[in-house]
Design a protein that fits this description.
Layout lengths: L2 H5 L5 E7 L3 H16 L2 E3 L8 E6 L4 H23 L5 E5 H7 L2 H5 L5 E3 L7 H9 L4 E3 L4 H13 L8 E5 L1 E2 L10 H4 L4 E2 L2 H13 L4 E5 L7 E3 L5 E3 H8 L7 E5 L8 H9 L6 E3 L7 H6 L6 H14 L4 E8 L6 H14 L3 E6 L7 H4 L6 H24 L5 E9 L5 E5 L5 E5 L8 E9 L4 E5 L1
Parallel strand pairs: 1-2, 1-3, 3-4, 4-5, 5-6, 7-10, 10-13, 14-15, 15-16, 19-21
Antiparallel strand pairs: 8-9, 11-12, 17-18, 17-20, 18-19, 20-21
Helix pairs in contact: 10-11, 14-16
This protein binds S-adenosyl-L-homocysteine, iron/sulfur cluster (SF4) and FE3-S4 cluster.
The site of S-adenosyl-L-homocysteine (SAH) has 17 residues, from β15.
Catalytic activity: N(6)-dimethylallyladenosine(37) in tRNA + (sulfur carrier)-SH + AH2 + 2 S-adenosyl-L-methionine = 2-methylsulfanyl-N(6)-dimethylallyladenosine(37) in tRNA + (sulfur carrier)-H + 5'-deoxyadenosine + L-methionine + A + S-adenosyl-L-homocysteine + 2 H(+)
Enzyme class: transferase
Main location: cytoplasm
């Protein structure tokens, strides 16, 4: 190696990555980190040490998007401090704010060097090279297929070992256009990754010691592709294939849409022990009027009937969901219908949000926007009910013996933390097993956000 090559050796470069939003951003951040590692960047958790700061952003609610700008104010100061000592720092904005706002970000925050949308991160090393030359870069117009085509290449360069559980994106984008939601605009239309790519990545993960894979997609159950048998596969069929991979003991998928929950997927829940009995199936509202205004294209009764069928197939399945309160026009009666649906379904976990009008979505233009204090009150009542249900689900497990996948050391010495089939952390004595083991655990007590167990 020549001296020049050593001097230019990128080995010393550091990247700081902060991730906002959904699991797909977590996955993308990891792939970006992998791609950057090939380019000589190693990760750091200290912004001040970073030659490159990458914020992988979320645009779903106003608060999420605005957080990026307040964070940028802070980072700009650190960039100036570094500049004073002759060290460069590039600032890159990735993810859904990048896609939604593009060049506007650089106008509002001139310290930003690079804006890169979620479909373009495989072009990051090249874009960085140009940014280092002093150019302001905005990359937001590539096709999703292009990103997927490049995924196996970045994955082949070595999957950085991150634990015994992993995410795997199988589908991206959304064609549903719920009237409150920015995702169809930021992530583009639905694209499925090919079966062979998914299987290859899952095999690599399993070889690296991963025991549990969560398939990701904005509408993951809309995934479809041609199987090796020449037939059209849906997610159910794909899950059966992935369950054959040696070492992969647990499979999950998220997020699904009620309209794409087909029979084959319900059969997978019935017949596939590796498919964990946990289903995140957002409904948003229990009022048919509001569901219609949201363009969800199903009724509350459709949703409840669907869950009845899923529970008939897999009785121990735990349900999770998403809710929005205060969508334009939501009356007290509409909100009560949501409360009633929650009582009928009984959730093991759920996420609930105040409606946030997003620029460019039909909901933001609707009349009868709901006052903030009404939203606050409804959210409080809904969350109290959901918390109560979550608590009683956890309590119902006390005395039972369950499988726990051991994931990491506990916060306190002598403890390890596993994961229940229903995603709760399970605290055990460290002698119970080693990381990656699936152990029998008897639940003895419920903690604030976890279960305490003894080896059974
Ligand atoms: N693709 C998934 C998740 C989309 S975003 C789905 O279809 O369910 C995750 C959640 O954020 C949504 O389920 C919804 O509950 C919430 N959300 C989306 N847009 C929102 C908005 N404008 N205001 C408040 N909550 C929103
Ligand atoms: Fe957004 Fe609706 Fe698509 Fe989910 S299904 S990503 S809520 S538009
Ligand atoms: Fe946010 Fe984009 Fe995910 S808006 S929730 S990061 S798809």
């Amino acid at each position: 190696m020549s001296d020049e090559a050593v001097a230019a050796s990128p080995a010393a470069k550091k990247v700081f990555v902060r991730t906002y939003g959904c699991q797909m951003n977590v996955y993308d951040s990891q792939r970006m980190t992998d791609a950057l590692a090939a380019d000589g960047y190693s990760p750091t958790s200290e912004i001040g040490d970073a030659d490159l700061v990458l914020l992988n952003t979320c645009h779903i609610r106003e608060k999420a998007a605005e957080k990026v700008y307040s964070e940028l104010g802070r980072i700009r100061e650190i960039k100036a401090e570094r500049a004073a000592t002759g060290r460069e720092m590039l600032i890159g904005i990735a993810g859904c704010v990048a896609q939604a706002e593009g060049r506007e970000i650089i106008r509002r925050a001139p310290a930003v060097d690079l804006v890169i949308g979620p479909q373009t991160y495989h072009r990051l090393p090249e874009a960085l090279k140009r940014a280092r030359g002093g150019e302001k870069i905005v990359e937001t117009d590539y096709a999703l297929e292009d990103k997927f085509e490049h995924l196996p290449n970045t994955a082949r360069t070595e999957i950085i070992k991150r634990g015994v559980t992993a995410f795997l994106t199988v589908q991206e984008g959304c064609d549903k256009f719920c009237t409150f939601c920015v995702v169809p605009y930021t992530r583009g239309s639905e694209v499925s990754r090919p079966v062979a790519q998914i299987v290859a990545e899952a095999e690599r993960l399993a070889e690296a010691g991963v025991r549990e894979v969560t398939l990701l997609g904005q509408n993951v159950n809309a995934w479809h592709g041609e199987g090796p048998d020449g037939q059209e596969w849906g997610l159910g069929r794909l899950l059966f294939r992935l369950a054959e991979i040696p070492g992969l003991a647990r499979l999950r998928y998220t997020t699904s849409h009620p309209r794409d929950m087909d029979d084959a997927l319900i059969i997978a829940h019935r017949d596939l022990p590796a498919l964990m009995p946990y289903l995140h199936l957002p409904v948003q509202s229990g009022s048919d009027r509001i569901l219609k205004a949201m363009n969800r294209r199903h009724t509350a009764a459709d949703y409840v009937r669907l869950i009845d069928r899923i529970r008939a197939a897999r009785p121990d399945i735990a349900m999770s969901g998403d809710f929005i309160v205060g969508f334009p026009g939501e009356t007290d009666a509409d909100f009560e219908a949501t409360m009633q649906l929650v009582r009928d379904v009984r959730y093991a976990q759920a996420f609930s949000f105040k409606y946030s009008p997003r620029p460019g979505t039909p909901g933001a233009e609707m009349k009868a926007q709901i006052a903030e204090d009404v939203k606050d009150e409804r959210l409080q009542r809904l969350q109290a009910l959901l918390m109560e249900q979550q608590g009683s689900f956890a309590v119902s497990l006390v005395g039972r013996t369950i499988d726990a996948l051991i994931e990491k050391p506990g916060r306190q010495a002598g403890q390890i933390v596993g994961r229940s089939p229903w995603l709760q952390p399970v605290i055990l004595d460290e002698t119970a097993g080693k990381i990656g083991d699936i152990v029998k655990a008897r639940i003895i007590r419920v903690g604030k956000a976890s279960l305490f167990a003894q080896p059974a």
